[in-house]
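ok so i was messing around last nite and threw this chain in just to see what happens. nothing serious, just curious
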Amino acid sequence: MDASVAANIDQRTGLEDLDRAACLELLARAPLGRLGVVVSGRPLVFPVNFTLDGSAVVLRTNEGTKLYAARNGPVAFECDGIDRMFHTGWSVLVLGDAEEVRNPHEVARLERLPLGPWCPGPKPTWLRIKGGTITGRRIPTHGRIQT
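result:
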């Protein structure tokens, strides 16, 4: 194993620490994630479908708890993938602030992204999570790093 590969493995956990580029690549392929917000001092987590706009996570929503909380505090966004047969998997975490996209030109541009609502009902509000921090980890296959 070369030194650059070994440097990516956390010696305590055996997990591969993913760089920003690998995290963004995994985010781009994932259809579903979870948006974490805080309401009245308590964490809440909502499943959401999403897409990327550059390196920002974007999602659509409607009025309600999720939107209210995302507008008024920091958020966490997480997505992951697993392979049950080989006992491998990965997780990416985005920490940042969510902003409601209100500019009509920006909304029109976002409307062209491959993201439609999965649940019935209108989802007229676009949220963009600007990742102050994007981190990820992967369980290597049988002790080896996946490529």
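not much to say yet. Residues 11 and 17 are 10 Å apart (CA to CA).
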